[in-house]
Hints:
The chain is an alpha/beta fold. The protein is built from nine helices and five strands, in the order βαβαααβαβαααβα. Helix 1 crosses helix 9, helix 2 packs across helix 3 (44-55) and helix 4 (61-72) packs parallel to helix 5. The structure holds adenosine-5'-diphosphate (ADP).
Amino acid sequence: MKLILFGPPGAGKGTQADKIKSHYDIPHLSTGNIFRYNIKNETELGKKVKSILDAGKLVPDETVVDLVVDEIQKPEYKNGYILDGFPRTIPQAEALDEYLASKETSIDLFLNLEVPEQELIDRILSRAEGRSDDTPEKIKTRLSVYHNETAPVLNHYEKKGKVQKIDGVGSIDDIFGRIKDALDEL
Ligand code: ADP
């Protein structure tokens, strides 16, 4: 199963991806986690993207697309994956669709986690993971990047009839229950 887990910063994509991963045994591919891992380990990629993540802006499409396409060709992803944080722009979505089409496959489902804006801000400020982009000013930048560049990706997959909306408010288990209902329908 190939899933896209979509939603604004703070929507709970990482939390729900972990639950989907353990329940359905599908690997979780988070571009944000990959970038943070590379920054922490001071790799070439990490050095290239650090200031971008710190500012709450987007890594260039080409860098992210190359990274994801390399990653999903690894054997552990051959039965599917949960994409979290990708695609985040229309060019990224188009590149992904083209790559999958070249392999005669496509995304099975696009889950859109819906959470009101004020709740997003409250959640990010209270999660205290020590992320350098979790300050009020950076959150503002990330939300505006989300509205301008990322939200159109939802429309792109809506046109393809792949989108399931998930109410992202409630307990972690309530939300996961809604995701399970959507996945079990596939
Ligand atoms: P969140 O969803 O909480 O904003 P992520 O962990 O998904 O956080 O991403 C953190 C940061 O990593 C983003 O603000 C951006 O700088 C970078 N990033 C992650 N995925 C992408 C992507 N697909 N395209 C461009 N930049 C990305």
